[in-house]
Amino acid sequence: MPTLNDIMSRDVFTVAGDTTVAEVAQAMLKGRVGSAIVMDGRSLAGIFTERDVVRAAASGRDLSTARVTDWMTPEPVTAPPDTDVDDAAAMMMGQGFRHLPVEDGNDLIGIVSLRDILRTRVRRVG
To answer: Which pLDDT score, from 0 to 100, does residue 126 have?
Structure first.
């Protein structure tokens, strides 16, 4: 049975909390990523996703001055790298999120999306 360590992306897009929504949205588009991990030094402070970009845009606020800390999900759910892929899928579906940071202790080591999990499940069936 695959674990998150087997499928996670180790190249995690991170930003500082004072980065503007506009800057992060542009970088997410350019990097073709659906989320940014918001860091406070070496600590995970939150996660900022495509959904947060939409919420911020719909608010009417100036996205060139709005900070990601105003729109991120603080203290997101994380999982250790030895988490079974099926358990991670159940967690994500049950709690309604699509991006799961992977931490080894307090160190951010990767991220998994529902797309990554679906790709793994399709390979097992096929």
So the answer is: 56
